[in-house]
């Protein structure tokens, strides 16, 4: 279990009240015995004037509960966070700040590190919700076998932009676009520009799932894209690769793709441990050929043997859990507890919006629900009772923040509210009907907050959402483009398949 989120500074959550009541009452408050509000409830509060967030202007979050996620800082109550340029400059009480700093009133709110989604097939966002009833078999049948060729570059641009806007709105400041439909440079550059134009942080995981990687990775398009758009690794959008390899055989035809990845310093993300599709052999092949790399991210991993988990643990690689996906689609049961027991670093992901939302609060809850649920189920099957839950709210909060940063190799620069790190911050209202009274900001953030509480989102020191509203016109533009794209795709798919896909037939064991 992780204690980073639970360490509090001496003041506890109710400093103002404590100073009135005295030390004895303060001690009771810190123990959870007294609940006070430091600001009027949101519904009753007067609207606050929005400060201007001109480029380069420092920003200070004042009098806020800070979930730093930094083991040395823990949770800081009634504190300030100062951002100058792209970075977090200081965390503390009554900070001295530059005279021109924009002030965000943090009373009645929590500030947390931006959340990170490490596996999302953004291209499918333009057909959001279409596959709500699908299994993974339905998904392959419709999207893989029938529709993928219908996406044009402009559809990929629209989908990426909309998906990123959804990220910003939900407090997800970094998203891995696990692309699968990049049929060449013009497709890849379109999808990349959708990521760049959002203003948020992303990783384009360049992929084409309809041919083995050795057939497309070395063809020149990836190298050209890296040269022309990703020459720097210190920019909001960075590049890596995505493929699955031969998942059930002891063979390694994809060696040229791996050699390319290593030569170009591009990490690789793979679907792994997926029932009937990606088996332990995938990992054994990597081991035998020297590509079980610490930069690898393995997605799902529900069906692996314990010895394979040991191999991943020893390699330094990370695992992305997409619990909503695994529970609904059937790749294998979310393996969070087992992965955690092997001390493999974990991040969380939403997979695809053709089924689910890109809400990381939902991802955290699904992860906990699945893990606690299976523990209770197994215990009850042996007529036993689980006395204490294994996985904790602090664990999944770390998976959704620092865990994501670590998975991307950005852990030293992102993932916690630590002075010197890049300023990717989310202000979550804690004075709403679903959040008051605030007793434990960590557990309430996980089990009670939702994207409606996301008030302010900052990426790389820039405010992209404030007072619950997206700044600028990116959303309206993304919506317009996505609706145009949907019209095109629906026409190509045809009304019959469009209707049939939303009502998959009776389930039969295959
Ligand atoms: Zn996936």
From TrEMBL:
The keyword Phosphoprotein does not apply. Keywords: Hydrolase. This is Cytosine/adenosine deaminase-related metal-dependent hydrolase. PROSITE patterns: TAT (PS51318). GO terms for molecular function: hydrolase activity, acting on carbon-nitrogen (but not peptide) bonds. PANTHER family: AMIDOHYDROLASE-RELATED DOMAIN-CONTAINING PROTEIN, AMINOHYDROLASE SSNA-RELATED. Residues 299-463 form the Amidohydrolase-related domain. It holds the Pfam family Amidohydro_1. It comes from the Bacteria. NCBIfam families: PRK08204.1 (NF006056). SUPFAM superfamilies: Composite domain of metallo-dependent hydrolases (SSF51338), Metallo-dependent hydrolases (SSF51556). It comes from Catenuloplanes atrovinosus.
């Amino acid at each position: 279990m992780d204690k980073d989120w639970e360490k509090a500074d001496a003041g506890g959550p109710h400093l103002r009240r404590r100073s009135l009541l005295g030390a004895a009452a303060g001690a009771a408050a810190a123990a959870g015995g007294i609940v006070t509000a430091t600001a009027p409830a949101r519904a009753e509060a007067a609207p606050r004037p929005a400060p201007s967030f001109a480029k380069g202007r420092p920003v200070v979050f004042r009098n806020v509960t800070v979930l730093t996620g930094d083991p040395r800082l823990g949770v800081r109550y009634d504190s300030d966070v100062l951002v100058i340029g792209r970075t977090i400059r200081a965390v503390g009480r009554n900070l001295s700040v530059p005279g021109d700093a924009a002030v965000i009133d943090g009373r009645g709110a929590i500030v947390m590190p931006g959340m990170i989604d490490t596996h999302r097939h953004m291209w499918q966002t333009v057909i959001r919700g279409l596959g709500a009833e699908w299994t993974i078999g339905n998904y392959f049948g419709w999207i893989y076998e029938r529709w993928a060729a219908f996406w044009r570059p402009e559809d990929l641009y629209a989908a990426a932009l909309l998906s990123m806007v959804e990220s910003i709105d939900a407090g997800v400041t970094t998203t891995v676009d696990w692309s699968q439909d990049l049929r060449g440079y013009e497709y890849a550059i379109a999808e990349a520009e959708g990521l760049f134009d959002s203003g948020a942080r992303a990783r384009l995981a360049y992929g084409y799932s309809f041919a083995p990687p050795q057939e497309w990775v070395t063809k020149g398009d990836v190298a050209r894209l890296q040269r022309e758009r990703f020459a720097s690794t210190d920019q909001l959008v960075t590049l890596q690769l995505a493929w699955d390899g031969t998942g059930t055989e002891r063979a390694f035809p994809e060696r040229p793709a791996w050699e390319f990845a290593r030569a170009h310093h591009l990490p690789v993300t793979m679907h792994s441990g997926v029932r009937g599709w990606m088996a332990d052999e995938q990992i054994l092949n990597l081991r035998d050929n020297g590509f079980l790399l610490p930069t690898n991210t393995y997605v799902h991993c529900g069906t692996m043997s314990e010895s394979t988990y040991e191999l991943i643990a020893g390699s330094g690689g990370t695992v992305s859990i997409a619990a909503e996906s695994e529970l609904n689609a059937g790749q294998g049961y979310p393996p969070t507890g087992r992965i955690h027991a092997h001390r493999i670093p974990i991040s969380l992901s939403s997979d695809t919006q053709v089924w689910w939302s890109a809400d990381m609060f939902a991802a955290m809850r699904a992860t906990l629900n699945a893990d606690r649920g299976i523990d209770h189920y197994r215990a009850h099957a042996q007529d036993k009772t689980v006395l204490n839950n294994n996985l904790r709210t602090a664990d999944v909060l770390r998976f959704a923040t620092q865990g994501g940063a670590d998975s991307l190799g950005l852990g030293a620069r992102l993932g916690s509210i630590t002075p010197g790190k890049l300023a990717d911050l989310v202000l979550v209202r804690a004075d709403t009907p679903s959040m008051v009274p605030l007793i434990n900001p960590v557990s309430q953030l996980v089990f009670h907050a939702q994207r409606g509480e996301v008030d302010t989102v900052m990426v790389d020191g820039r405010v992209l959402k404030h007072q619950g509203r997206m700044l600028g016109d990116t959303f309206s533009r993304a919506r317009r483009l996505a609706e145009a794209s949907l019209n095109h795709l629906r026409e190509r798919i045809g009304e019959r398949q469009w209707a049939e896909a939303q009502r998959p037939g009776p389930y039969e064991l295959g």
